[in-house]
Amino acid sequence: MSFAAPWHLGWLALLPVLYWLALPPRPRQQAWTAHLAQWQMAHAALRRRPPRLSGLRYVLLALACTAAVCAYASPLWRGEPGPRRLVVLLDGSLSMAARAAAAADGATDAFAVASSLVRRQLAALPQHVEVTVLRCGGPLRRRLGPSARTLLDLGGPEGALDVDLPALAAASAAPDTAVWTVTDGQGQRSLPTVGALTVVPATGVNAAVLAVRTTDRWPLPGLGVEVDVVCHADAAQSGELRVSGAVAAVAPRAVTLAPRKVTTVSFELERAPAGGELELALTVPGDVLAADDRWAARLPALPAPRIAVLAEGEAGPFAGVAARALADEVGGSVVAAAAGEPVGLLLTDGGSVAMRPGAVRAVSFGTLFGSEATPTPWLDPAVVDWDRTSALTAGLDLSELRVQCAFREALPAGEPFLWAGAGQREPLAVVVGDERQASVHFAFRLQDSNLPLLAAFPQLLRRAFVRAYGAAARLEPQVGPVPAGEQDLLDHAVAADRALPRFGAPDQDLAVWCVLAGLVALAMRAFVR
Amino acid sequence: MKRRVPALPEVPARFPPGFLTLLHELLAAGARLPGARIEQQRARRAALSQSGTFVGHRPYVRGDDLRRIDWAASARTGELFVKQLEEEERRTAVLLLDLSASLLVGSPPRRLAALRLAAVVGGLALRHLDGLTVVAPGAGARAITSFAGAGDLAALLQHLDTLPVADATPEAAITLLLQRGAGGRVHWISDFATPKALELPLAALRRRGALVTGWLPGIAEDVQAPRRGYVRLVDPETGEVVVVAVDDALAAELAHQLALLGRQQDRLFAQCGCPLVRWPSPADGDFRRMLFLPILARCAQ
Description:
The complex is a heterodimer. Chain A is 20% helix and 29% strand. Chain A has helices spanning 14-22, 36-45, 55-72, 110-123, 145-149, 165-172, 318-330, 457-469, 511-526; strands spanning 2-3, 29-32, 75-77, 85-91, 130-136, 141-144, 177-183, 196-199, 206-216, 222-232, 237-245, 253-257, 263-270, 276-283, 294-299, 306-311, 333-335, 345-349, 352-353, 362-365, 368-369, 377-379, 383-386, 405-407, 415-420, 426-433, 438-442, 476-477, 508-509. The relative contact order of chain A is 0.14. Chain B is of the alpha/beta class. In chain B, the strands form three sheets. A six-stranded mixed β-sheet of chain B has the order 5-4-3-6-7-10, sandwiched between helices. A two-stranded antiparallel ribbon of chain B has the order 1-2. The radius of gyration of chain B is 21 Å and the shape is globular.
């Protein structure tokens, strides 16, 4: 036993003071007597006791004082030397999803084998060992204490092992910290030389879908797909590529995969109108890693645009013609603009409409929103520029656009993509809305410009339609790209396993016991006369 | 609890001139002791007279007259015994003095009164009897000292003045007295603080025919507590210390215990047929004659 603060033991010098204080007071008078026996009998008859120092009471008080001083000096019972913390670097990269060569405890992949091994080892550790589990690969997850011992919510194997395990192990190791690396050696040049090491074997043939490129012809149902596949094996492998999901049925495509050579396979698909999930699956016999054999994407439903036209009385036929042309292109129809009629796109030309810009998918030309005031004409605004990078106007030639009259009041606050003006630029058209729903507004009516006559008008109108739907019409891949380092399971770092070191025992604080002993001594003193 | 015992209290001058003057007056005008006239007549033929009333035996000591050996008693017991005759012993008196430290208690100390009492009684014996023997247990070589005639008064006072403080049990004192011979008048001056210890010695003296008179110089502490408050009491004999808080209740209880002690002393002497005389100690320097007259009156009985 030792003391963390032995200088506090100096307070034991108070014991003589306590003894002095415990002494009964000395009488100032003294008298000789020949009748001491009579004095004592008189005392006894009155049941009195002479004041005296109770040795046992003082011993108990001194014991309590000593215990308190010892507790103040922080008595420690020395434990055993050795590390008292353990950092587990658990490889959770995609390659750990490979089928384990010798699966135990019902484990099906290397990550399950590694998790089971780590869980058993942590359960056998003394409770005073502070455990930290770092799941490396994919999203980095850190677990401490009880959640670390049970490997709570570590997820499945995914992603790339984009950490340097030897450097991380060396950085984590300390005199009181042991490091244990559990990995399959995939994606690392070398394995840690510091701390314990367990290599979970996960080798074999692996075919993978490397990349998928799509050509989306939305709102038309056509969808072009190009798939890059590869097989990491020592010899060529034959496989099959299947397309399933929200597309018209496609026959499986047989592919012959040369060793470690990328093969591209193209598909022309027709999307189902209701949308859904599109899945591409590569099947190669003997493939031990199935997690990289699949690619999936969510396909939005094809639009069935119902285009309504609102045009003022003096407007020309341009809006109606444009609506019919757009409906023909996207496979929709022109419907009457009536209350209660579901509308996919509202096309307005002039006039005033009670709607909030951006809340309705619409394309307006010189239309006022919720205002009965007479707009101020803006005569002959000169078109000076348009946004070359906007999805609406990129690649279009609007240099021939002439506008006779425009209305500034017809433009709500939004993102401009067309400007006019000689000195200071002023917007002539804006986009209002978010990623999934928007409306496009022009400051002029069709009959006040030559826009319907331009060659870019149909394309601009179609792009406005696509922009009105935004991300709601976009294909969303469900599977990310396969990490390059997690594919070739035949090429991994190798090292011999190293066992965990012997962990030390912590120092035991005896202060509580000292305080308890002192309290017991005081309690006993209360019953001692 | 044993503690360091302070120095014993000092006893003031035992026999100052005032007391000597008073002593001479008392001896000159004092009453005769019982049998004194007869003894004076018999003193002339002391050497020839071997008769008297048989009162008991005592062990033979070297120097005794062989004619006084009781051969019949010696034959029964196997030891030599001599006959004690009453007339012979009455011519002397014995002063048995308690020299223990417990007599140093009091203000003035009880020992001062005891020595002056011994001087008065011894002076009377020297004046009216044939001799006086002072037995002082614990005094070493001077434990037994004999005086004869009125001319030895100064020697007696000198002897009393120089006696040391010495502790001796009553059994030891009686043993010493019996070795010398227990017949005659025995004046035992003590505080008799432990009455139970006196029971057997008094009975032994009585069996040997001694006429014992107990003298108890009284002090104020014999009847009441000396003071109030937080007091440290010290027994001068044993050095034992007791710390007490003296209040009215304790003082009353102590007075009760002291009264019980007095009754025990009286009952003890009464059981043995001996008188116990309590003589209130006069203050130091108070030599009024009337204070000492009770001694003369008691000796004359």
